[in-house]
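Good morning C.,

I know you're traveling, so I'll keep this short. The sequence:
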Amino acid sequence: MQSIQDKLVEKSKEAFCMAIELYNKPTIKYRVEGFALFICNAWELMLKAHMIKTMGENSI
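The tokens, ready to paste straight into the viewer:
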């Protein structure tokens, strides 16, 4: 069974890939805005995983 930290890291990677994929589609009108949303989400998830690792689950 995966820990919460591992799940957050996995979701962070998925959000990052979605950001890159969305940015690379020139036909989408709001691709930069979508990229910004997904990249911020990826950063937030990675930060939460780091906080759990260093300060424990109650830190988030």
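Safe travels,
E.
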